[in-house]
């Protein structure tokens, strides 16, 4: 599987082929979520700011289908990379999408929109509890979609490892 992820990432960088969406479930999902949680804790500690947690989390993540869609729409499509007139303030590194969204049409547009912006999409499946698992990351009851903002911090380093298909360090907390 790591080979497919690296190939997908390379195609994102060179703009040739839209990336495949990856699906995390079971033990793989547990490890990914623990790694992201550790990244959140590290970024929060190392950031050294005194913002309330919910405000700080909003700076790191785009939470919810509407917010993720809004950020993606403000990003220039990959074909318009050279266009500096519409350079976004915020770029998404990746999108985590719960597979248990009902009705499905709420998120039907996200894979196409993410692909046009060359943003990797990771589907989270957990026997109908994917949205609960994503909500835990951002201290909410549920979250159908979470966009990871590119901020060059510990969260982004963890996401880079996940996107590369590397085994994320599961040892230290």
Q: What is the secondary structure topology, with strand pairs?
A:
Elements: H1 2-14, E1 22-24, H2 26-47, H3 53-60, E2 61-63, H4 65-74, E3 92-98, H5 110-116, E4 121-124, H6 130-137, E5 145-149, H7 154-164
Parallel strand pairs: 1-4, 3-4
Antiparallel strand pairs: 2-5, 3-5
Question: Can you tag this structure with a few keywords?
Answer:
173 residues, alpha/beta, 60s Ribosomal Protein L30, Chain: A, five-stranded mixed beta sheet, 5 strands, 46% helix, disordered N terminus, disordered C terminus
Class inferred from helices and paired strands: alpha/beta
Summarize the helix and strand pattern as letters. Answer: HEHHEHEHEHEH
Helix coverage percent of residues? 40-55%
CATH topological fold name:
60s Ribosomal Protein L30, Chain: A
Global shape: globular
- CATH classification, class level: Alpha Beta
User: Strand fraction band?
Assistant: 5-15%
CATH architectural type: 2-Layer Sandwich
What do these coordinates show?
With 173 residues, the chain is of the alpha/beta class. The protein has one domain: 60s Ribosomal Protein L30, Chain: A (2-Layer Sandwich). It has helices spanning 2-14, 26-47, 53-60, 65-74, 110-116, 130-137, 154-164; strands spanning 22-24, 61-63, 92-98, 121-124, 145-149. Strands 1-4-3-5-2 form a five-stranded mixed beta sheet. α5 (110-116) links the parallel β3 (92-98) and β4. The longest helix has 22 residues, at 26-47. Mean pLDDT is 81; it is low at 1-20 and 169-173.
């Amino acid at each position: 599987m790591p080979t497919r992820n690296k190939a997908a990432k390379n195609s994102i960088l060179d703009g040739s082929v839209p990336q495949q969406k990856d699906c995390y479930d079971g033990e793989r999902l547990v490890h990914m979520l623990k790694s992201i949680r550790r990244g959140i804790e590290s970024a929060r500690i190392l950031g050294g700011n005194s913002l309330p947690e919910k405000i700080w989390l909003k700076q790191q993540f785009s939470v919810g289908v509407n917010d993720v869609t809004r950020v993606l729409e403000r990003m220039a499509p990959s074909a318009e990379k050279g266009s500096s007139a519409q350079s976004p303030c915020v770029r998404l590194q990746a999108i985590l999408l719960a597979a248990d969204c009902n009705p499905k049409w709420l998120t039907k547009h996200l894979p196409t929109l993410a692909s046009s912006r060359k943003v990797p999409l990771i589907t989270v499946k957990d026997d109908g509890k994917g949205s609960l698992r994503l909500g835990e990351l951002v201290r909410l009851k549920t979250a159908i979609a979470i966009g990871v903002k590119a901020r060059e911090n510990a969260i982004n380093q963890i996401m880079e490892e996940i996107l590369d298909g590397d085994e994320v360090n599961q040892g230290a907390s």
